[in-house]
Write a structure and sequence with these properties.
Blueprint: H1 2-27, H2 57-61, H3 76-95, H4 99-121, H5 126-139, H6 148-173, H7 180-193, H8 198-220, H9 231-256
Length: 260
Amino acid sequence: MTETFYTTICVLLGAIVGSFLNVVIIRIPQGDSIVFPSSHCPGCQTKLHWYDNIPIVSFILLRGKCRSCNMPISRQYPLVELSMAVIAYALFSGFSFSLLFAIYFIFCAALLAIIIIDFYHQIIPDVISLPGILIGFAFSFINPAITWQSSAIGILLGGGILYAIAASYYLLTKREGMGGGDIKLLAMIGAFLGWQSLPFVIFGSSLLGSVVGIGAMLKQKKGGKTVIPYGPFLSIAAMIYLYYQQEIGKLFIMFCLPPQ
């Protein structure tokens, strides 16, 4: 009974935070305040009542349309809310109600916002990544999973590795292949997960990006000039590492270290 209660609380918390992330995702790229004005229909500008702003439930009850003007509501809203609810459930399953749950809940919420913003706008807002670096490093002093030294090295290596790759690509092609936002994002990931996470995050994101990139090249028919955002792949790889870091560590030992 207690387990079910706490699980329900976590899922509800995730959905509520997901609703807030929708505000962040919509307003930050436009340079708008995430506080004012209050939630409203983007079509008729009607202020939403609390019962029309219940995560996931209101979308279903309203059948995906504004109560006032019948303008279709983007499916992004319930999908982001549901995604954050699932993330909260996964974090609770792995860390229960603990300090790690709180730390990684904040981390994953930031990553989810970055995934959607970068997918639609090809930008990773500094207002998320730069405070994220500082918050991740600050948390390292109370995070039982990593040390502050590991976090500091993660910031330096995370930003440094991608900067070196981006600079080398530009020297070779005279084109920008990676934005500064990706560099700051990997530094943020290093701050929260430590430098030990970086090999997998870089490898995993490159693998995911290559698979999706090949599909995009075939669809867009632009060859090497095809542009896809890299931030979502870094974020997804970071989440995979967060959930499966022990299994990833065992595989690394199995395949990368010489037998004794």
